[in-house]
Amino acid sequence: MHKRILGQQGLTTSAIGYGAMDTAFGEGAEYDAASTAAIRQAYDDGVTFFDTAELYGWGKGERLLGTALAPVRDEVAIATKFGFTPSFAPNSQPGHVRDVVDTSLGSLGVDHIDVLYQHIHDPAVPIEDVVGVMKEYVDAGKVKYLGLSNTTPENVRRAHAVHPISVVQTSYSLFDRASEEFFPVLEELGIGLVAYRPLARGFLTGAVKPLDGYPADDFRRHNPWWAPGNFEVNLEIAEELTVLAESKGVTLAQLSLAWLLARKPYIVPIPGSRNGARVAENDAASELVLSADDLTTIDLIIPGGART
């Protein structure tokens, strides 16, 4: 798999990473075995960048990922995040950050974290103070690179003034283009972009369903892409993109990931799946090169994101 450079501090990763969130929310040996197999499939495909967080199962996701990657620890980069309470409120108070990072090191079973993110901006704690605590771990050799997630361009600039930020993680896909507002500051400061939800919560996988096809508590029920009137328009967009993908002998997911890779050389998407075949499909997108005509056609089909 091709490599990409994120930031200017030495972080080099596979062009496509692996988002491990879904590995943390099931129970039982069968669920964990499938999750572990998916992680190892990604590694076998050449993926070297694996993303988790304290929030994902409150340590379960970190433990599973750390165990799955233990045999190849020195060959991969592991990213994790702090910044939430169990009630999903932001908390980046210095003491809380230290507690979470120390716990994450143990949960992952590692002596250092490759990328440490603040998971969400905490308006109660100046970003300079947060990065100051994160820097303590860099200075101690327990963290290699720093990142911010779910933040603002201004916070990125302020954080970078305290300690270099290597990556910013945002929701970014053909359907969700808001993150493009970060491009100017990322390019000015030399920071990479890690794209989560690169397949638009499943809308760009070729397996999207209307709302009545999902459980009553499914998160999609609160997403405007699935709202009546929007869903039909967005489904038509996905179908047009599928026609283009099939004309190139690839899947909709592969086309969508390749589009992200074509946007900027400092973007690394992190699709997540517990299905090994899906993982292999996603990872193969790193070899797909879209032509200028392909990109023009995609822009005509979906010029500014999904219908909301």
TrEMBL record:
Source domain of life: Bacteria
Keywords associated with the record: Oxidoreductase
Pfam families: Aldo_ket_red (PF00248)
InterPro entries with a match to the protein in the record: Aldo-Keto_reductase, NAD(P)_OxRdtase_dom_sf, NADP_OxRdtase_dom
Single Gene Ontology MF annotation: oxidoreductase activity
Coiled-coil positions: none
Signal peptide: none
Domain NADP-dependent oxidoreductase: 16-301
Annotated GO CC locations: cytoplasm
The protein, known as: Aldo/keto reductase
